[in-house]
Amino acid sequence: MLEIKNLSARSEDTEILKGINLSVKAGEVHAIMGPNGSGKSTLAHVLAGREDYEVTSGEVTYEGQDLLAMEIEERAAEGVFLAYQYPVEIPGVSNKYFLKAAINSIRKYQKQPLIKTSEFLDLLKSNLAKLGMDKEMMERSVNEGFSGGEKKRNEILQMAMLQPKLALLDETDSGLDIDALKIVAEGVNALRSPERAIVVVTHYQRLLDYIVPDFVHVLSGGKIVRSGDRTLALELESQGYAFLEAETASA
Amino acid sequence: MIVTETTSFQEHFERIGQTESAGWPDWVTELQAAGQRRFSQVGFPTTKAEDWRFTNVSAIAKHSFAIATAAGDARLATELAGQATLDDQAVRLVFVNGQFAADLSDTATLPVGLTVRNLANDLDADDSIATGRLGRQAAVERSPFTALNTALFRDGVVVQVADGATIEPLVQLIFVTTGGETAVASSARNLVALGRESRLRLVETHVGAPGETYLANHVTEIELGDNAVLDHHKLQGDSIAAFHIASTHVSQAASSVYRNHYFAFGASLSRNEILCYHGGEDVETVLNGLYLVSGTQLADCRTRIDHAMPNCRSYEMYKGILDNQARGVFNGKIHVHPDAQKTDAKQSNQALLLSDDAVIDTKPELEIYADDVRCTHGATVGELDDRALFYLRSRGIPESLARKILIFAFANDVVQGVKVAPLKKHLESILLADHGLPNV
User: Fold this and answer.
1) Residue B1 pLDDT > 50, yes or no?
2) Which of A50, A91, A100 has the CB atom closest to B390's CB atom?
3) Where in the sequence is the domain holding B426, given as residue range(s)?
């Protein structure tokens, strides 16, 4: 589904990604872990199309297409979804309108009939219930005045409504208490299917107790320095990231 | 023959001389004469004057206006007043060319504690409300347009709320200007007085015959007693070829709350000035505004808050959306007097420029003479927020729609601050027509 080859990117004069190689197949869940500043979030944002980063080399193929050549909205319409670490507040636009605009924009792109209002409302209602969210929140402006936890749930709600093929979760666990974390993880797990792939970017392995990954990669200094199965996450949990630096330095 | 407007108003003044009298008390005649003298002396301002640097009124000065006395096109005026009517339950006073139109108004059932009159009647009444109040705040020296209004007014509205009264129905004032074939100058003079512990919700709507050139030059004086709360809304939807000049002078006694929501959509040139004076402690002033201009429109928004007493608050937010070659001017003055300790003043002005040719001149002015105060101001001029744009697009929303959504959101933020339901609905419909959210 996703093939990243030798991807390098920079922000202004700083090289952040220095030759990333990663292959994600449908049905898989990958976790990308690493210390602060290792480039985890940058990778997720580059895949979503953020223009603050300049791709200096490498290629990314998504479902056989050149992902880096696609517009931001095209990537989303083709099924790429980024759940943000810091969701943006948009005063003056209701959540409900935003969600419907997103769903129908994607349907238009895919040349599918637009969603009926009643169908939209039913879908919204059931997803809100699953995530333990108040429906009154949908009348409020996008993320405005939401707590950190509410913002994260709102990201997962959007994901549930849009049903992406490739979900990128950027530090979705930060700022969540354990109950909220479980609810969010359930929301993510509900999306697991043989047709979909999920990439979880996280600093701590805590989230991976609930969203169990098939593969774990450790990113450090803009490169993937180790890959393994979920035991690698547990190893990191017990040893911390310090040993990596030693490895990277000696490499 | 080209007559400059100073001459034309001057000619009018000479013609009426001392002979025309509205039969009003001497103090009114004297007040009007003072206005006339002042205007004759100073004439229309030029851009050399600091207060008028960005607002060139030479188009007004060069134009000839008939002094509006009678209603213009009665059928059109009726239609316009009908369209502007927000709420059937509201107490409604309609003024056509600055003169009260009783047949278009609805003052049949007034709640206890509310008095509404037209100024001409009030000045004749034994219990005149305007007497001792009119002209107290709006000094003729303040502005040439205040002087001109003072010289020319023949009518306006007088609203009084008794001590302790909470007025449930909305009071809507509709100012219609239409001269038909003639360009008219309309000068309404208004007075609003709220007694202690009273509450009122007021909506001022300004409309005019589409495409007509006219001068609407209004002055409003407002007095709030202790603990009084006034929610004042103004919609300026004048003809796109019209000139709209207005000043609202507010005097606030202790613990009173004045909230002003200003929405400017119309006029080729508009200038709206709000001046608030805190005459007691624990006063709150909230000034919110939204101007949407395009073509070659100019919208000038000015506010002045005099924090003259301790422990008072003022919160101000003005937003503008400017397209094509439109121009905006924002001048927000906050004057904190030496005694006004613990003042809390916040001011923000944000402008969204949708075209490279649109211009905004923004000037916050903070003069602070007390040491224990919190004053903040911010002005942002720019384009849409890139982060928000990315967020919307990353959910599949095409860039063009994402832009429309963010423009709407920017303006809607101010509209959502309005708590009067029919007005909010009306504003939303205007917003949707011009900068609307497509049905999705």
Assistant:
1) no
2) A50
3) 384-440
Give which of B320, B348, B313, B321 is closest to B332, Cα–Cα: B348
In sequence order, which residues have a C-beta less than 8 Å from that of residue B238 and are 6 or more positions away?
Answer: B177, B206, B207, B208, B216, B244, B266, B267, B270
Q: Do B440 and A101 touch (CB under 8 A)?
A: yes
Q: Which of B244, B237, B297 is nearest to B263 (CA)?
A: B237
Going by C-alpha positions, the residue among B259, B263, B280 that lies closest to residue B272 is B263
Q: Which residues of B touch A91 (CB under 8 A)?
A: 409, 413
Contacts of B398 in chain A (CB under 8 A): 73, 105
Instruction: Return phi, psi of residue B89, to 5°.
Output: -80, -10
Largest interatomic CA distance in chain A = 60
Query: Which of B259, B280, B301 is the C-terminal boundary of a domain?
Result: B280
> In the beta sheet, which residues pair with residue A173?
none
Interchain pair A101, B401: CB under 8 A: yes
Q: Is residue B429 part of a domain?
A: yes
Cα–Cα distance measured from residue B421 to residue B90, given in angstroms and rounded to the nearest whole number: 12
Tokens of A41: 């979030």
CA B254 to chain centre: 24
Whether B348 maps to a domain, the answer reads no
Share of chain B above pLDDT 90, in %: 78
Find the range with the poorest average confidence among B135-149, B303-317, B396-410: B396-410
The answer to whether the Cβ–Cβ distance between A76 and B394 falls below 8 Å is: yes
Structure confidence at residue B234 (pLDDT): 98
For residue A247, the model assigns a pLDDT of 60
pLDDT in tens, B369-382: 999 999 998 888 88
Could you give the domains of chain A? 2-250 (3.40.50.300)
- The set of residues, in sequence order, having a beta carbon less than 8 Å from that of A54 and lying 6+ positions away, is A9, A10, A11
pLDDT at site B64: 85
Q: Please check whether residue B430 lies inside any domain of the structure.
A: yes
Amino acid identity, residue B387? R
Find, among A157, A156, A161, A160, the residue nearest to A173 by Cα: A156
Rounded to an integer, the average pLDDT of A72-81 is: 97
Residue from A47, A75, A90, A100 whose CB has the most chain B CBs within 10 Å, to mutate? A90
With residues binned 3-state (H G I as helix, E B as strand, rest as coil), the percentages for chain B, rounded to 5, are 25, 40, 40
Cβ within 8 Å, pair B396-A49: no
> How deeply is A194 buried, as exposed, middle or buried, from its count of CB atoms within 10 A (0-12, 13-18, 19+)?
exposed
Q: Pick the residue from chain A with its C-alpha nearest to B412.
A: A92
Those residues of chain A whose CB sits closer than 8 Å to some CB in chain B are 48-51, 71-73, 75-77, 81-82, 84, 87-88, 90-93, 97-98, 100-106, 109, 141, 158, 162
Position B378 in a domain: no
* Cβ contacts of B406 on chain A, cutoff 8 Å: 90, 93
Last residue of a domain, one of B227, B254, B280: B280
Token pair recorded at residue B409: 């959101």
Cβ contact B413:B406 at 8 Å:
no
Of B392, B396, B410, the CB nearest to A77: B396
Determine the 3-state secondary structure of A180 from DSSP. helix
Give residue A227's Cα distance to chain centre: 19
